[in-house]
Amino acid sequence: MYLKAIERRLISHIPHWLGQVLRRARRGRADAGSARYCYAVWLRHLTLAARDAGLDRVPDAVAELGPGASLGVGLAALLSGASRYHALDVARDAPDEPEQTRRLLDELLVLFERREPIPGPTEFPRLEPALESYAFPHELLTDDHLGRSLAASRVEAIRAACAALGAETAGIRVAYHAPWHDPGVIEPGSVDFIVSQAVLECVDDLATAYHATRQWLRTGGIASHQIDLRSHGTSDRWWNGHWEYPPRLWAFLRGARPSLINREPVSTHVQRLTDAGFRILTDRRTRRDDGIPRDRLAPPFRRLSDDDLATSAIFIQATTA
Ligand SMILES: C[S@@+](CC[C@H](N)C(=O)[O-])C[C@H]1O[C@@H](n2cnc3c(N)ncnc32)[C@H](O)[C@@H]1O
User: Fold this and answer.
1) What's the CA-to-centroid distance between 265 and ligand 1, angstroms?
2) Virtual CA dihedral for 272, 318, 32, 289, nearest 10 degrees?
3) Where are the domains of the chain?
4) Which pLDDT value is given to residue 10?
5) How many CB atoms lie within 10 A of CB 219?
């Protein structure tokens, strides 16, 4: 009876809910297509890996889970000095046409050439992780290093590799695996750095994703994930209001958008990551105390720990165990 009342109230929210989810997706697509967003994302993962996870050089082979609407994070990695970039997504969302890639590459190049500070919370208020300093990471990306990685001939090679996805061009290779189903798309132990931004909260099969990333990573490589545990527009009352929906109603809502959040709490991510054979190096959590009251939780979530209930994001970096 009580559940029915909740379902009726939640169903009455569906038009509003769909509007919010779609608006959020549009904003996400616009961000992912912007050079400054991709630069901000890549340099957050890179600088924190250098500061807290022992990274002492720019990784050579980088894989990104869920790039979304552009391959800009990968382009930033290539301009930083990487020579291999694998993008893996459930659908091919980034346009194949070279126009967007050319524009993004040109804009990113200017940002690196200017040693532009990392765009911070004034420009991207919802982007996490927050940093202690948004200064350009000169210690890792020294003038000598960037002199080589941004050389005109190398930038041309990156441009050519983007136009010939999957083929190696003058030592640079860009591969776009979308959709990907088989971990075999990347050779085991061949990747130095795995990055994802606001992706793992959307992945249906977390065990497979964490095991695949572990298989791709070389011994001592780093996996760097920002996981956004908020409701992604599915609740207008609480940042974690997605835990109010009973499973049947959630399945109905999610049916329309398969890459909507999986509703797993932070502890599940930590468990799956360690089960897959990772050792955690950095664990930075964002906590909030303005979430859904316990008595509003749908039955499967009533046993969430206080920590799970209050953690709205985690930035986690891990290496091979
Ligand atoms: C919220 S978007 C984030 C996109 C981008 N990283 C950004 O920062 O804007 C989530 C992305 O995760 C992708 N995704 C969902 N499940 C995935 C999976 N199993 N493997 C790879 N990507 C996945 C979605 O297709 C989508 O591109």
Assistant:
1) 17
2) 70
3) 2-320
4) 64
5) 8
31 ligand 1 Cβ < 6 A: yes
Segments of the chain with pLDDT less than 50 = 1
- pTM beyond 0.85: the answer is yes
Q: Is the CB of 198 under 6 A from ligand 1?
A: yes
pLDDT digits (tens, 9 = 90+) for 137-164: 999 999 999 999 999 999 999 999 999 9
CA distance 94 to 52: 31
Q: How far is the CA of 298 from the centre of ligand 1 (A)?
A: 26
pLDDT of 172: 98
Q: What is the DSSP string of 178-202?
A: -S---GGGS-TT-EEEEEEES-TTT
CB atoms closer than 10 angstroms to residue 11: 13
Taking the centre of ligand 1 as the mean of its atom positions, its distance from the CA of residue 288, in whole angstroms, is 24
Cα–Cα distance for residue pair 243/223, rounded to 1 Å: 28
Supply the CATH classification number for the domain 2-320.
3.40.50.150
pLDDT by residue (tens digit) across 175-197? 999 999 899 999 999 999 999 99
What is the pLDDT at residue 111? 98
Atom of ligand 1 nearest to the CA of 228: 1
Query: In angstroms, what is the span from residue 157 Cα to ligand 1's centroid?
Result: 27
Provide the edge-to-edge strand list for the sheet that holds 172-177.
Answer: 168-169, 172-177, 84-88, 61-65, 191-197, 217-228, 311-320, 278-287
Q: Is 83 in the pocket of ligand 1 (CB under 6 A)?
A: no
CB neighbours of 1 closer than 8 A, spacing ≥ 6? none
Atom of ligand 1 nearest to the CA of 178: 21
Question: Which of these, 93, 83, 59, lies nearest to 177 by C-alpha position?
Answer: 93
Reduced to 3 states, what is the DSSP secondary structure of residue 293? coil
Cα-to-centroid distance, 263 and ligand 1 (Å): 15
What residues contact 186, with CB distance under 8 A and at least 6 apart? Answer: 63, 86, 88, 177, 212, 215, 216
What single letter denotes the amino acid at residue 147?
Answer: G
